[in-house]
TrEMBL record, chains A, B:
Transmembrane intervals: none
One Gene Ontology molecular-function label: DNA-binding transcription factor activity
Stated name of the protein: TetR/AcrR family transcriptional regulator
Top-level taxon of origin: Bacteria
DNA-binding region(s), chain positions: 60-79
PROSITE patterns on file: HTH_TETR_2
Domain HTH tetR-type, first and last residues per copy: 37-97
One matching Pfam family: TetR_N
Keywords: DNA-binding, Transcription, Transcription regulation
Length: 246, 246
DNA sequence: GTCTATACAGAGATAGAC
DNA sequence: GTCTATCTCTGTATAGAC
């Protein structure tokens, strides 16, 4: 049985240590509490990884328990069940994303922040540490819809992105032709772009190159005009309009 | 157990038919064969819908059997199992896509064909009739990877798209800065863009409007230059380059 | 070929000893 | 609080009557 953190959590050993020592009960409680939180962290960490790698439906609590080095029953002391556990993972993912946005250097302008956001989420996904939910048809979505903390965190992230979109549009870095709602959904969707998997699978590009191509597709879209329609049957836009962009 | 020769070995039915009917065995076999195919079609149709609505993992064979109006055991007379059934659904989806591409009017230029392809797949998805696999982490991907018919059909579709991409690039409708591989993956990924679900969910746009916005994001990207990078720390591209596109 | 009934496996969740 | 062992439910797949 793998214990990835390497810490000894055996309750009996812990008991012995507490008995032979004369530490005050305050310290005792604090110690146990610390261990408790540490185990919870280990669970959340491994669950984040498995969720990112396998997806909600394919991930099992047996896998989480084994990866975290504890019995499955322990999971239920910390969380009500699979849904509850994964909801908390997703909420923490959103909080990490918020933290990343908060830490962006002040000199960055809005469009740079948006690009940094997309790149960071894409990279995290390739590192099996996805902070955002990529699955559209997973059973967990029902639970997330009902989760107030999740909806609040998601709302915060959306608001932040929308502010920057407006700023970037005013600065002329995002084309004003994109509705705010469409631009926001595009950013959040491209941040978990399934194209990363497809491109990685071709083995034509490195990890970082794949991320950059995905970032480019996203930013190029927002910068371009949505009104380009090569298919309106007669219009054939001149080449020079395109070359003027580069 | 599949009966590859199509001959009926069942002792009961064969006996009855041979006794009470005087029709030549040829007609008899043809009629039964027709019914057999009809039921198989019904299974495939309902499975396509459920697969599109719920995804591979969430879809159950009980649902397929009930939707098709037959006992679950019948499914196993037509298909080896869930994987086999869904693989055939996906292959037929690819064939339908090929059929759509074959039917495009001759006057359409390459970029118009590409746009028509993306729009058609997106619409089919919203009609619960997805011809392409959107799920990236489903268990079915292993089976598809091993399925020769699927890989062949997918290869055919890819080749066709790549030809048109090259033509569109030569015509100046797709920016030459996009590598062929990236452009192809972008098209196939955008054709099943998860953004459709996200946008539909906001209830801000109608069915058709959502599809059009997704089509626009895809085509605008291919038309634009990938080398626009607002985030290269010092460069601040002029507004006029963007406005020149519209 | 189609049905009912059932075997079998996997995974979520719980019981009870320590 | 943690463990082992078990329950329960669901879903795939199969057996056997007709």
């Amino acid at each position: 049985m793998a214990n990835r953190s390497g810490v000894n959590f055996d309750p009996y050993v812990t008991n012995i240590n507490l008995t032979v020592s004369n530490r005050p009960s305050f310290s005792h409680v604090s110690f146990r509490d610390m261990m408790h939180r540490a185990r919870k962290e280990a669970i959340l960490e491994e669950c984040t990884r498995l969720l990112s790698e396998r997806g909600y439906d394919a991930m099992t609590l047996d896998q989480v328990a084994e990866a975290a080095g504890m019995a499955k029953a322990v999971l239920y002391k910390h969380f009500k069940g699979k849904e509850d556990l994964c909801c908390e993972v997703m909420v923490r993912g959103l909080e990490r994303a918020q933290g990343f946005l908060d830490g962006l250097p002040a000199r960055m302008v809005a469009s740079q922040r948006l690009q940094a956001f997309v790149r960071w989420v894409l990279q995290a996904q390739l590192n099996s540490d996805a902070p955002l939910l990529a699955e559209r048809k997973s059973e967990i979505r029902h639970a997330l819809k009902a989760s107030e903390p999740y909806q609040l965190a998601l709302q915060g992230l959306s608001t932040r992105l929308e502010e920057w979109i407006v700023q970037a549009q005013e600065a002329g870095h995002i084309h004003p032709g994109w509705p705010l709602l469409v631009a926001r959904q595009m950013l959040m969707t491209r941040a978990v772009d399934p194209m990363v998997d497809a491109l990685m699978h071709t083995q034509a590009y490195s990890h970082d190159e794949v991320v950059e191509w995905c970032v480019k597709t996203c930013m190029a879209t927002l910068h371009a005009s949505p009104e380009y329609l090569p298919l309106s049957q007669k219009a054939k836009p001149a080449k020079k309009s395109m070359l003027a962009v580069g």
